[in-house]
Amino acid sequence: MSYAAYAGGDAYEVPHGAAAAAPSGRFPVLKEVSTSSTVAWCPLRSHPALLAAGTVTGTIDDSFQTSSRLQIFDASLADPHQEMPLLGQAKVKDVDFVRLGWGKKGSSDGSYGLIAGGMSDGSVLFWNARDLIEGSHRAPVVAKRHAGPVAGLAFHPTEPNLIASGAEAELLIWDLKNPSSPTCSPYVHNSTDRSGIVDLAWNMKVPHILACSTSAGATNVWNLKEKRAIFSFHEASHRHISATAVAWDPSDARQLVVAYASPVAEVWDLRYALQPLVVLQNGHSRGSILTAAWSQHDSTIIVTSGEDAQTCMWNARDGSLLDSVKDPGTTFSMRWHPFNPELLATSTYEGKVAVRSLSNTGSHVPAWKGHPCGAIFGFGSRLVSFGNGRSPGAVRIHKVSTEPEFVRVASEFQDSVSRMSDLRALCALKMAQVGDDPDEQATWEFLQMSFEPDARARYLSRLGFAVPESARSPASSESEPPPPRGARPVQHPRIDEVSDEDFFTQLSRDEKSHEADPGRLSPTSNGPTSPSRSSSPTAARAPPAVEDDAEHMSPVDTSINNALVVGDLPGAARFCAKHDRMADALLIASLGDAALQAEIHALYIAQHRKHYIRSVAACVAGKDDMRAYVSRSDLGRWRETLALILTYAAPGDFVDIVRVLVDRLDRAGQANAAVTCC
Fold first, then answer.
1. Is the distance from CB of 98 to CB of 75 less than 8 angstroms?
2. What backbone torsions phi and psi does residue 52 show, to the nearest 5 degrees?
3. Is 220 within the bounds of a domain?
4. What is the rounded distance in angstroms from the CA atom of residue 201 to the CA atom of residue 165?
5. CATH assignment of the domain containing 591
């Protein structure tokens, strides 16, 4: 079929309803064709409906000859038929497609770009898309072969002359300046780590950064300017589970998602790479996640498919499951449409390539849909609203009728607010009115204590943590304690204030400056590795990635923990020394004054993994570390967490950090605890 039959870009703008049979249901199929293939969309705006498919297993044609095919289909929604017409194809003998990519190379001269196939024999083949559509039988350009099947293949998002391929432990960067004779640079052929590359992805913001995930569960971040890996991390369980897919956040250069041979995917932030930022779980029921795709049009949406034949849509920011659907087959490949944010091309092992609509995102409003309407209350019981009605640009003001009883109670409350003493009396009255409800009693009691001059001490006492008369927390004062004699504060820029380019440059510099350290982990070793956290201006101070033992504390642990919660640092340090916990004693003493440090100075320090060490280290280090600690603390111990905030939070940070705990309690359904913390 010649391309003259293709309707072109204008026809592609027809709404989804023009497709056949008005598909219904979640993630409906708008177009499909029977082939077991990996797919790639045309990257050109002039031809947005072209879809390439390369067969992943041998097929049998009319002459009963087994061969693989590269095919180009017309996925235009202007065609009322669901079956996608074939525009052109090329046969490939003796090898199958593993990966497929479509780049813009050559499109400036009116071509349709260049299609690259990563093959099962380790070769990379290149076709001119125009030759396939026009029926030319020109042979593909065969590039240098990898040692094994090509498991990763990706055109550069902004440099059409570059494409990366990965196989086994080898990463190659191809230069397509002369498409008939590609040249490559072997960026890595690691002889010590034989884990194979399973997928790779270019960073969408920083052009020389690329991520590779391996069969050992490691993900390596490469700086191609320096031709070396600058960062590495493993899946959180460190069980060496193979990775299956990797994709960068299109809006944040330092975040990426990695799927594994398990029902779990992880979103990592390279600024805090001791543990995943978000874990995508409880969506897939079993087996591996086979593919993951991060929406280029809404960075809050990630879609995954797995061996359980489930396709799941996730919120990338909080890990919540937006929607899931049971597929008729097992999807192993997915590609978002480069221009239409609602379209996703999928491939199944059962032999179906489909174009599906993801317009139904449940309660989540995707970025491309904007705000069709809105409303807000103003002063004087007025409601202001807008909407896409008969007059889309109009703003309407409504007078909202109120109940007299509600107005009376609100007026009384407003009068009480104007007099602080009346607020305490109002809380006492409410406690008397709620009867025997312990949750309501606690809510009003905590609210009453907030109006007392010594509110923090009263909170601690009510939470069950008595403050010794001799102990005064450094954080209980309205001013910050002076630093130890001779200490000079070190100013570092905040992580969020560092540009994407500077962030990866700093990673490279710190990695290079520590290469001679024999105790330092290499980019391919187990565990999360990065440049020295103590020297990097972009480093995040975070507690060690070890398991918290808060549920198994001994009586000695409990005594030390309680002393720390109320700020009794001298008592805690001396108690540790008394029970031969020298490492704990020295660390706690370092948080106190010079006299306490001198008292404990001679004691030996060894690493411990106790709950109280982790909590106090996070709380006294700074606002960001305390916020991080509260965001992952055990909600079953919310009282202790609140006490830590009361003790250590700076006055200016107190409300923000308490809000983190309140929001977590609210999302967990612990409404009474959340109200108490307010």
1. no
2. -95, 145
3. no
4. 10
5. 1.25.40.980
C-alpha separations of 193 from 226, 231, 520 in Å: 20, 15, 16
Gap between the Cα atoms of 314 and 302, Å rounded? 5
Do 593 and 599 form a contact (C-beta atoms < 8 A)?
Answer: no
CA distance 219 to 523: 9
pLDDT digits (tens, 9 = 90+) for 197-237: 999 999 999 999 999 999 999 999 999 988 889 999 998 88
pLDDT, residue 565, reads 85
Phi-psi region of 312 (alpha: psi -120 to 50; beta: other; left: phi over 0): beta
Backbone angles phi, psi at 590, to 5 degrees: -65, -15
CB 164 within 8 A of CB 200: yes
| 68 in a structural domain | no
Among the candidates 452, 473, 499, a domain finishes at: 452
607 in a domain, yes or no?
yes
> Could you tell me which residues come within 8 angstroms of residue 608 by beta carbon, excluding any fewer than 6 positions away?
581, 583, 584
22: amino acid identity, one letter: A
Bridge partners (DSSP) listed for residue 477: none
Tell me the Ramachandran region of residue 359: left when phi exceeds 0, alpha when psi lies from -120 to 50, beta otherwise. alpha
- Residue 26 has a pLDDT of 77
Q: What is the token pair recorded at 311?
A: 């396709």
CA within 13 Å, CB half, 318: 9
Contacting residues for 270 by C-beta, under 8 A, at least 6 apart:
221, 231, 254, 255, 256, 503, 507, 530
Q: Lowest-pLDDT range, 19-28, 293-302, 556-565? A: 19-28
Query: 92 Cβ partners below 8 Å, 6+ apart?
Result: 67, 68, 69, 70, 117, 119, 125, 140
Choosing from 434, 452, 470, the residue where a domain stops is 452
Tell me the average pLDDT of the chain.
Answer: 80
- Residue 74 included in any domain: no
Neighbouring-strand partners of residue 97: 119
Distance CA 507, CA 500 (A): 11
| pLDDT of 538 over the 70 cut | no
In angstroms, rounded to a whole number, what is the distance separating the alpha carbons of residues 351 and 34?
Answer: 6
**What does the alpha-carbon distance between residue 213 and residue 195 come to, in Å, rounded to a whole number?**
10
Give the end-to-end CA distance of the chain in Å, rounded to a whole number: 68
What is the structure's pLDDT at 313? Answer: 94
The boundaries of the domain holding residue 592 are 555-677
d(CA 79, CA 264): 38
State pLDDT tens for residues 450-487: 888 778 888 888 887 766 665 554 433 333 444 433 33
Tally of structural domains, the chain: 2
Task: Compute φ and ψ for 229, nearest 5 degrees.
Answer: -75, 135
Query: 280 pairs with which residues across the strands?
Result: 265
Quote the DSSP letter at residue 494: -
Q: Which of 601, 443, 506 is nearest to 254 (CA)?
A: 506
| 3-class state of residue 310 by DSSP | strand
Q: Which residues pair with 311 in a beta bridge?
A: 305, 325
CB-based contacts of 216, cutoff 8 Å, min separation 6: 193, 195, 234, 240, 242
User: Residue 574 corresponds to which tokens in the numbers above?
Assistant: 């001396």
Q: Is the pTM of this model over 0.85?
A: no
Q: What is the pLDDT of residues 567-602, one digit of tens each?
A: 888 888 888 888 878 778 888 888 888 888 777 765
One-letter identity of residue 95: V
DSSP at 608: -
> Environment class of residue 621 by beta-carbon count within 10 Å: exposed (0-12), middle (13-18) or buried (19+)?
middle
The two most distant CA atoms of the chain are separated, in Å, by: 94
